[in-house]
């Protein structure tokens, strides 16, 4: 048990009969939830964690064999649920975590009550009629940049993803988060994320799902939210006023309100 708790730097807080697991996105860690978790701590038990390679996780637990595909991250989520003996979990996943949570729920639907996806995408690459937002050359360029100049990549990517020139402190916070991750692990996680394709798995997902799609998101275009909604049974799509890819940081009030509304 202690191995898993330490490996993923698991933190449990709050009080309530129902449990919310908050799962961070690529290049981030559990601290990214700091603006919204206080609003849920009185009514829910909250579980926070860092993926291996992020935040204060145990970096020595990272192996390319395990984490070069989503199954490694999915297994870690299931491990956390099992070690804490959780059931009826409300899983809130940002970005790549939306698909990690969905795949975990396909494997063990009995563990999950609801999925809440913030800025999710089953496929980041354009593919025929499918609009994912990126060409393969864009991703290759991004991965090369991460390898050659990691700090330069972080300062290029943060303002693009945050999309809030009026709030430079938030962009700075995100850039710091990017820079603090291990460059080799971050690049491998980026590759797993941006080159993945989970469209076929959507039909296997049965857990009720809220899709929170940001307006003007440079990472996930609106078409992706609509595609997910049309392919996920039991799904609700909410188009947010929030711009950018990190509404839980830039627009915590709207994020909290939509989650609460869905859970009630």
From TrEMBL:
* Segments forming domain AB hydrolase-1: 20-257
Pfam families under this entry?
Answer: Abhydrolase_6
Q: Which family does it belong to?
A: Belongs to the AB hydrolase superfamily.
Official protein name in the record: Sigma-B regulation protein RsbQ
* Species name: Paenibacillus macquariensis
Q: What is the lineage of its organism?
A: Bacteria, Bacillati, Bacillota, Bacilli, Bacillales
